[in-house]
Design goal:
Chain A: This is Syntaxin-18. The complex is a heterodimer of chains A (309) and B (652). Chain A is mainly alpha-helical and 309 residues long. In chain A, helix 4 packs antiparallel against helix 5. The relative contact order of chain A is 0.04. In chain B, helix 5 runs parallel beside helix 6, helix 17 runs parallel beside helix 19 and helix 19 packs across helix 23. Chain B has 652 residues and is an alpha/beta fold. Classes of the chains: A mainly alpha (309), B alpha/beta (652). Chains A and B meet through strand 1, helix 1, helix 2, helix 3 and helix 5 of A and helix 2, strand 2, helix 6 and strand 5 of B. Strand 1 of chain A pairs antiparallel with strand 5 of chain B, so a sheet runs across the interface.
Chain lengths: 309, 652
């Protein structure tokens, strides 16, 4: 366990001071000493390197605080369902994304600048190493904060993709089926995360509303509860198409299954053959080894025979 | 403070706490270092914390302590941009705090004062490896005043970390000044009292730091009439003084931390190297001990000289270039942790197995690549895409793991190959088997003279080792005529006979003191010349190398520990002295107060130790549930270094 002897040190300083005074040694004690210290401090090259480095760090810190502050709202999926207070529209989200990106770019540019400048100025090897390490730390910090951003953005994108997927596979969107569908969903997966349910419930409403900026093919996004007959028809057509696709997929899968079974059979036969060959190769190997031996002995005999003659 | 005695009915809580707090001394030292590096504030990982940077200045002692525990990357993670030796040329770096980790010696203090005067850094955090004296502290204060830098000295700490931890449960006192506390230094005939005092003080200081870091006050037992006894007396005194000083005691509740040894105290067994001189000379068969014996290995780093390739160079071609490679054998190296105590053939097999499983995994990944190429075209099948992406992500995330595995396999292949070459060249398996037989007093199938005169088997040093082991373990010294014969054979083989001189003296002295130690009676069984390894045609072709199986036998040190820990009565250990620093009455009684077996023990060998003993202790304690052992020694030497010391001693 480490022992803090800083107080002891300060006490020693006092002791030394008084001792020096007593001995009449004027060594930086008293008022002049502290003034000296102040003076000595100011002309010390504080280095704009470190002050600028700290600036960049504080910027990144601000970005991180900003992201963390709005993170909850950003990720919140039901912001359209909840009250005004916690809501965040997509435009706001986009704005956050935009701002965050520009911020990150400026920060990384600042780091680059610092780096080139640090290299240009003539300094000792140690200072150079130290500075590049400091810049590495700052970059790492920026990366970590960017991860925050990219994580929440990934969640958002994933949710959009999921919605897109559901929107393609969902059947009749008229009110009757909507209710039955939602009740179906409720009965089918009561344990599923509640996220899905509200999403699919408001689904038909969302489709016209959200679909417009996302999919952009669904006519004038009215955001009403009812669906116009054209839309119903379009959904029906889509439906038919999807059924047809499903069937063909199903057939393909069947075929593939059959092929896979055949392949596995062939593989079995193949392995059998290989194993048979293994036995034969072993015996060949033995023979070859025996043959080599024989040849060796033969050579020996041949070599000896002239001597015997 | 009344000594805490554990009640007869040991409560489970105490036992659990002791087991949970089972000191991994490595962890404790690492935590202490990290706190020091974090400006002496406990270190908490914060993923979005602002970076803080600092430079680390250490002396050679500090370097030896830090290097087995923290890698350069870990230092970086703690915010250290530069790490420099104290006595090197250092340039002023503006606006950065500096953390010092040095021993409080004269030169170091002078250099630190110089740094203060030259205003090298922004602020100074001074950490002394062992406690600094008041006068030296005043020297620094003086320099700080002169340089008007008093406010820059932010913190001063005594770290009490004056020991080197190599494994979770193994520590060494020092590396830099090992000559000071070496076996030779302690045992040379011309040592003066003051020199002995200095050596003992150094050892005790480190042991004291060790117990402060461990956070426990041990019960000390030692043999009589040895250097170990001197250490025990001094250590007891130091601990006692510290405990009495209520203001500054280092062992009070708040410094101990949670879950400490409140019910159980550890046992410290101090033994002297002289009770067993055969083990340091022994040829060995386990991986870690072999690496230490045969290769250049210290502070967990092994240095290999690799020859580039095995092609036969045609006559007249330029000689093969030798690359020097060094590897760190660290706790994250899973293969090392698993196999460092295994017999060597097992290690060779395991490397093969690892290589095969790695290749299988590699093929998996490659197959995935080709699968990916065929699918992923169907835009309607988003689900299939996400399935493939799942496969991809798992493959990508397992890639770093695979690469790490490959690196470890390469590392161990190289190390094991190097070891194997030595084994084959010097016929170390033959020596090992023979020595085991000698030490366990079974009949020998080959005469000693034969092995010594055999020009193929081993270096002169190997032969000397073998003969010394024979001489040490013999119940009666060989007759003069025999001895002359052996001497002649040894000299013919090129050995230096000085170590023998010393061993003769030692033996005479040891005979007077007590009966010669026995090594137990077990055997090693050779498992046939053709191992499975050879059949699979691996690169570890161990043809002609016996696949020997180690049988568990207890070395003398392990036996002593067993007796003391389990409170067994044994003539060997019955008259060991007993010290309890926490007892009010400060004297030794040979009657131990504590009748219960100990759960934790620390074995410390004064005069040097080695990996064979360490491994033996580990094997012994593996069988016992809930018990832990720590092994320490004043220095760590392999047989080569030990023979050198013996030879120097024999010259006098």
């Amino acid at each position: 366990m480490a022992v803090d002897i800083t107080l002891l040190f300060r006490a020693s300083v006092k002791t030394v001071k008084t001792r020096n005074k007593a001995l009449g040694v004027a060594v930086g004690g008293g008022v002049e000493g502290s003034r000296d210290e102040l003076f000595r401090r100011s002309p010390r090259p504080k280095g704009d390197f470190s002050s600028r480095a700290r600036e960049v760090i504080s910027h990144i810190g601000k970005l991180r605080d900003f992201l963390l502050e709005h993170r909850k709202d950003y990720i919140n999926a039901y912001s359209h369902v909840m009250s005004e207070y916690g809501r965040m529209t997509d435009t706001e989200r986009d704005q956050i994304d935009q701002d965050a990106q520009t911020f990150m770019r400026t920060c990384s540019e600042a780091i680059q600048q610092l780096r080139t400048q640090a290299h240009k100025e003539i300094h000792s090897q140690q200072v150079k190493e130290h500075r590049s390490a400091v810049l590495d730390f700052i970059e790492d910090y920026l990366k970590r904060v960017c991860k925050l951003y990219s994580e929440q953005r990934a969640i958002r994108v994933k949710r959009v993709v999921d919605k897109k997927r559901l929107s393609k596979l969902e059947p009749e969107p008229n009110t009757k089926t909507r209710q039955s569908m939602s009740s179906e969903k409720v009965s089918q997966n009561p344990s599923k995360d509640s996220e899905e349910r509200p999403v699919t419930e408001e689904f038909p409403e969302k489709i016209p509303a959200e679909a417009q900026p996302e999919l952009g093919t669904w006519g004038d996004g009215k955001g009403e509860d009812e669906l116009s007959p054209e839309e119903i028809q379009m959904f029906e057509q889509e439906n038919q198409r999807l059924i047809g696709e499903m069937n063909s997929l199903f057939d393909e899968v069947r075929q593939i299954e059959g092929k896979v079974v055949e392949i596995s059979r062939l593989q079995e036969i193949f392995t059998e053959k290989v194993l048979q060959q293994e036995a034969e190769i072993d015996s060949i190997h033995q023979l070859v080894v025996g043959a080599t031996e024989n040849i060796k002995e033969g050579n020996e005999d041949i070599r000896e025979s002239p001597r015997l003659k | 403070m009344i000594g805490l005695r554990s009640p007869a009915g040991q409560c489970m809580v105490g036992a659990k706490m002791a087991a949970a707090a089972a000191a991994s001394i490595r962890e404790r030292q690492t935590v202490a270092l990290k706190r020091m590096l974090n400006f002496n504030v406990p270190h908490i990982k914060n993923s979005t914390g602002e970076p803080v940077w600092k430079v680390l200045i250490y002396d050679r002692f500090g370097q030896d302590i830090i290097s087995p525990l923290l890698s350069v990357k870990e230092l970086r993670d703690m915010g250290i941009t530069l790490h420099l030796l104290l006595h090197s040329d250092r340039d002023p770096i503006p606006d950065v705090p500096a953390v010092y980790f040095v021993m409080p010696t004269e030169e170091n203090i002078d250099r630190m004062c110089q740094d203060l005067r030259n205003q090298l850094y922004e602020s100074y955090y001074l950490n002394f490896i062992s406690a600094i004296s008041r006068s030296k502290l005043e020297d620094i204060a003086n320099a700080a005043l002169a340089a008007s830098a008093v406010t820059q000295v932010a913190k001063v700490f005594d770290q009490y970390l004056n020991f080197i931890t190599l494994e979770d449960d193994m520590f060494v006192l020092c590396n830099q000044n090992k000559e000071l506390v070496s076996y030779r230094a302690i045992n040379r005939p011309d040592i003066t009292d003051t020199e002995m005092e200095t050596v003992m003080d150094t050892i005790v200081d480190s042991l004291f730091c060790f117990f402060v870091t461990l956070g426990a006050v041990p019960i000390i037992r030692c043999s009589r009439g040895t250097a170990a006894e001197m250490v025990a007396v001094k250590l007891d005194k130091k601990l006692r003084e510290n405990l009495r000083d209520a203001r500054n005691s280092l062992f009070t509740g708040d410094t101990l931390g949670a879950g400490q040894f409140s019910f159980q105290r550890p046992l410290l067994v101090l033994v002297d190297r002289n009770i067993d001189l055969a083990t340091p000379l022994h040829h060995t068969w386990t991986y870690q001990a072999l690496v230490h014996d045969v290769l250049d290995f210290h502070l967990n780093r092994v240095n290999l000289e690799e020859s580039s390739g095995v092609e036969n160079s045609p006559a007249g071609a330029r000689p093969k270039r030798k690359n020097k490679k060094s590897y760190d054998l660290t706790p994250v190296d899973k293969f090392w942790q698993k196999h460092k105590g295994s017999p060597f053939p097992e290690v060779a097999e395991s490397v093969q197995q690892e290589l095969e499983s790695y290749r299988a995994q590699e093929d998996e990944v490659k197959r995935l690549k080709s699968i990916m190429g065929l699918e992923g075209e169907d835009e309607g099948a988003i689900s299939m895409l996400s399935d493939n992406t799942a496969k991809l992500t798992s493959a990508v995330s397992s890639l770093p793991e695979l690469l790490e595995k490959k690196r470890l396999i390469d590392l161990h292949t190289n190390v094991a190959t190097a070891v194997l070459e030595h084994i084959k060249a010097r016929k170390l398996d033959v020596y090992f088997e023979y020595e085991e037989k000698i030490m366990s007093k079974t009949t020998l199938d080959k005469s000693l003279l034969d092995i010594i005169s055999d020009p193929d088997a081993g270096t002169p040093e190997d032969k000397m080792r073998l003969f010394l082991i024979y001489y040490i373990s013999a119940q009666q010294a060989p007759s003069e005529a025999d001895l002359e014969q052996y001497k002649k054979a040894l000299t013919d083989a090129g050995c230096n006979l000085n170590p023998l001189q010393y061993i003769k003296q030692w033996k005479a002295f040891a005979k007077m003191a007590s009966a010669p130690t026995s090594y137990g009676n077990t055997t090693t069984k050779p498992m046939g010349l053709l191992s499975r390894v050879m059949n699979t045609g691996s690169q570890f072709v161990m043809e002609g190398v016996k696949n020997l199986v180690l049988k568990q036998q207890n070395l003398p040190v392990t036996r002593i520990l067993d007796n003391l820990m389990e409170m067994k009565s044994n003539p060997e250990t019955d008259d060991y002295r007993y010290f309890d620093p926490k007892m009010l009455r400060g004297n030794d009684s040979s009657v131990p107060r504590n009748k219960n077996p100990f759960q934790e023990a620390i074995v410390f060998v004064v005069g040097g130790g080695n990996y064979i003993e360490y491994q033996n202790l580990i094997d012994y304690i593996k069988g016992k549930q809930g018990k832990h052992i720590l092994y320490g020694c004043s220095e760590l030497f392999n047989a080569t270094q030990f023979i050198k010391q013996l030879s120097q001693l024999g010259q006098k």
